[in-house]
Amino acid sequence: RAKLDGRRCVRIFEPEMDVEMRSRVLLERDLRQAVAQDVVVPHYQPLVDLRTGALVGFEMLARWPHPTRGMVPPDVFIPLAEDLGLIGALTEGLMRQACREATSWPHALTLACNLSPVQLCDPGLPGAIRAVLNETGLLPSRLELEVTESALVGDLALARASLGQLKVLGVRLAIDDFGTGYSSLRHLQSLPFDKIKIDRGFVAGMADNIDSGKIVSAVVGLGRSLGLVTVAEGIETETIAGLLRDLGCDIGQGWLFGRPVSADQIVTILSEEPVEHRAVPAAA
Ligand code: C2E
Ligand code: MG
Ligand code: MG
Ligand code: MG
Q: What residue range is the signal peptide (predicted)?
């Protein structure tokens, strides 16, 4: 019986899988071309000092404008680029463009870029980033590399070696989506991070979930006692910004302060709003 059902299943789903497969093959072809032609572009989201409200930098978030599918989100094409072995080339192209653009921002502003977990296993990574810094002239201390915790579950020794080499370049390192991975505390202790980015899930939960608030409070305390800068992502309301400020969280990011925007729009933000005069969001 099960066998029969199984066979029927296969027959029923075969055409659909075919469509799915074909769609994926097309997307793969398009992504190869997009990477080769630098079609994937950096967008930027503001990072704000929670105490003063001043702009302190931007996180680069990749966007793929696709001719027929519209804006393809990174959650779709980054994993695909990893599978296709394109992530190194994609990151390098994006970082070169973002670092070049960042050299025209006020010097106090930092640029944060995300690295894929698989890139920590690439022995060519530190050299590629050094080359981008040399080429663009961006001061290494203005570049911050964000690594998600899931990057650290694989070969920890390899990740440590890779992060150590990046640190030698003079860039800063942040652990991203903190709280969603494994053995976080060991990573904080044994790896050269400068920053903790608290995952959006905990931050969003602070408004109505006491436990989320307690977790964020504990992470901010942990970060401070380890001498790390704490960043909260996904801040959508002034209430949450106020709660985070009261906890002593250093930096905020989220729709309250600004959505990711294109390089053109950044120029407008910077010309209209002097960095040091940005409005402080009212505490709740
Ligand atoms: P992430 O590094 O944790 O980036 C934060 C994500 O939260 C971004 O999603 C951002 O748009 C979103 N976000 C920021 N503030 C808010 C808010 O207030 N509310 C809500 N609902 N969302 C907010 P995005 O741009 O879709 O990127 C998703 C993930 O894709 C990133 O998460 C990062 O892991 C990855 N990613 C993006 N660009 C790159 C890249 O160039 N290279 C690599 N390897 N990964 C990237
Ligand atoms: Mg990030
Ligand atoms: Mg994050
Ligand atoms: Mg996140």
A: none
What local confidence, expressed as pLDDT, does residue 3 receive? 45
- Give CA separation, 17 vs 7, 12, 21, 22, 187, in Å: 15, 10, 6, 8, 40
The verdict on the CB of residue 61 being under 6 Å from ligand 1 is yes
Cβ of 109 closer than 6 Å to ligand 1, yes or no, is no
Angle at which helices 87-102 and 2-36 cross, to 10°? 40
Residue 2 has pLDDT above 90, yes or no: no
Rounded mean pLDDT of 222-247?
96
Q: Which amino acid is at 13?
A: F
Nearest ligand (C-alpha, residue 254): 1
Report the chain's mean pLDDT, rounded to a whole number: 89
Question: What's the one-letter identity of residue 42?
Answer: P
Cα–Cα nearest to 146, from 48, 229, 265: 229
Which-ligand-closest: CA of 197?
Answer: 3
Q: State the ipTM, two decimals.
A: 0.98
As a whole number of angstroms, the longest Cα–Cα distance in the chain is 71
- Tens-place pLDDT, residues 65-91: 999 999 999 999 999 999 999 999 999
Query: Which atom of ligand 1 has the smallest separation from the CA of 42?
Result: 41
